[in-house]
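Researcher: Structure for this, please.
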Amino acid sequence: MPSSNLALKPVPADLRARITPQAVASLPTDYGHYQLHAFIDHKSGIEHIALVLGEVGGQSSVLTRIHSECLTGDVFGSQRCDCGEQFKQAQRLIQQQGKGVIVYLRGHEGRGIGLSNKVRAYALQEQGLDTVEANVALGLPVDQREYDIAVGILQHLQVASIRLLSNNPDKSQAMSDWGLTVEAVVPLEVAGNPQSAAYLATKKHKLGHQLALIDSHSPPKN
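Model: Predicted structure, token format:
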């Protein structure tokens, strides 16, 4: 069963007031020509990004990825996790659709524990703990990410409803509980490697992620 640690709160009428659009510019990529939207969260001071391909305002069932910042995976190409490959795959799928959104949520390193604590958790994993056990050993939440900002950004973009690119049932539930209509959840599974095998198994068995490529009967091993 999913180990839900997400903070689900009463749905406000409008989340747009918490964030302010800062700037918009074009961003040509290997996977299409996006519009890059920068936002700032007044509560935390953190800046977030939305990558938008095509016309999404007023549209329903917009293919959408809510991506948690992962410096090690997204930038350094870490093989410990599937984050970087998921980001690229989301771009490919959105390019195939001709329109879509990637909301890039900063401040989500290590499922919200921060970059330094993420490195500390890595060190504990090298000693035999899994990703969940490492957070607990550090006295930190297993997952303290919130998704209200993502909903507010999609409100700013005037997206009516989404098809969510995710393997995480907690994420789709949190988006729904914040008032966003999630028409469908589209799997975003990428092939693992020997370095990420234990991590992916832990995500499936302890965090409830829907990962068909991971053996349902094999417990995670480090």
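Researcher: Any notable elements?
Model: DSSP finds eight helices and seven strands in the chain. The two ends are 21 Å apart (CA to CA).
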